[in-house]
Amino acid sequence: MESLAELDHRYLWHPFTQMRDWLKTEPIVLVRGRGAELMDDRGRKYLDANSSIWTNLHGHNHPRINRAIVQQLGKIAHSSALGFANEPASQLGKALILAASPTASSAAAADTKKNPRTALSKVFFSDDGSTAMEVALKLAFETARRSGRARKPRFLSLQNAYHGDTVGAVSLGHIDLFHKAYSPLLFKSDKVMAPYCYRCTFNRTKPERADARQYRKCNWECLAQLEQKCAIKRRGGEPYAGFVFEPSMQGAAGMIPQPKGWLQRACGIARENGALLIADEVMTGFGRTGSAQTQSTFAESNDVPGSSPPLRPSTRMSRVPVRSPLFACHHEDVQPDLMALAKGLTGGYLPMAATLSSQAVFDSFLGEYEDFKTFFHGHSFTGNQLGAASALASLEMLQEPASTTARVQLENALTQQLGQLWQHPQVGDIRQAGLIAGIELVEDWKTRKPFDLRQRAGMRVCEAMARRGVLTRPVGNVVVLMPPYCTTEKQVKRMVAVLGESIAETLQGKSP
């Protein structure tokens, strides 16, 4: 009888994987999970240090989500959203709109009160992050045409952007390694400088042993370039149909975080120049980017960058914050016109996505049947009942005070442990936003010299981590740590310690 590993080698094709390399080694075959732990078919246990590719929120085999799915199975697993409504999808739509509404005291709330049509009010369900972005793209495109703002709508996104793998989503991306091969299939979109403080040509400081956002010295040149780009487009008679961004941190770009204040200013520039705001919260949503207090501490900066000393892990994070936004946009009081959600939507259980739309966008598709203004787009599993049931259970847990407190404590623990990695000369930058951390590996921290991608530095470190019982995956030379919210302080300590040991073994030649 063939083993599971043999069946995998014989029949499967894995994503973002050079299969020639894959076929040379026996894969880890995961068969069970509980909490932050995974188990393979040989009984070996591992810590899930990237939440099963950034999706799992509350841990594996969570009893409340399990129960919600089983209860829904006793009713119905799926029915079509084409011509029919269903119970859990309707309830989830309301829950998402309420969760994505700005706090009552915020400027964004005041704006939507003045103009209710700008508030997020409708939910379109799809299958994954790529399709959620595809929906947002189509909605923005047609809204720009129907409003008369643009005859040939064009989109602006950030340098090294990644928004998914469907053709429209790829067209918004700017990572040559992923996207260049498909360029003949794509429509053209524009890009603008992203705030990559660690490698910014405008950052005038020498490397320090701290997050580069904390010691940078610049004059917001990245924002000046955005303003210039938008103004040129507007003067040409057709402003951008949409400004597309990942709030707080660009994931596939290498866990690139934005300094405090950038998002609010960038979105203000885009909106003043006529663009809809399209927020890709596929990775950053559902509490991933932290509490209001920890966000401020991780990315501390003043209006005059570099004017304050760098912050180290400190007791400033000891108090539990009053407010803990579920979406990264709300850390900077930004309320987008379209918001894409996926990954953690169902707690990491089932493939499901949602695109939240403003009333103004929704209204542009209203008309008589014979006007054919319908949004001609759909998915067979739109509003799937099992996905909606698990998402409702997950949202309920996320909004409980105990869950908020636990996330803050876990963020604090992760911050404290990450500080130990500065001792390794191959650690160039440690970037954290809540429960997302990216550790950039370099040949020499004093020069920021990167490893050649062909050296597989990040991948080799992650392979060494797997041998020690911790699973994650790099983005190039950046090792990602993104633990489930149920992870204990002891488990976080183990994840970071194993990363340090693996860096020493792999990049410094030290024996394990």
Helix and strand arrangement:
Layout: H1 4-11, H2 19-22, E1 30-34, E2 37-40, E3 45-48, H3 51-54, H4 63-73, H5 87-99, H6 107-114, E4 120-126, H7 129-147, E5 155-158, H8 167-171, H9 176-179, E6 190-192, H10 212-215, H11 221-235, E7 242-245, E8 249-250, E9 256-257, H12 262-272, E10 276-280, H13 292-298, E11 338-341, E12 353-358, H14 359-363, H15 385-398, H16 401-418, E13 427-433, E14 436-444, E15 449-450, H17 457-467, E16 470-471, E17 474-475, E18 478-481, H18 489-508
Parallel strand pairs: 3-16, 5-6, 5-7, 7-10, 10-11
Antiparallel strand pairs: 1-2, 2-3, 4-12, 8-9, 11-12, 13-14, 14-15, 14-18, 17-18
Features:
single chain; alpha/beta; Aspartate Aminotransferase, domain 1; seven-stranded mixed beta sheet; five-stranded antiparallel beta sheet
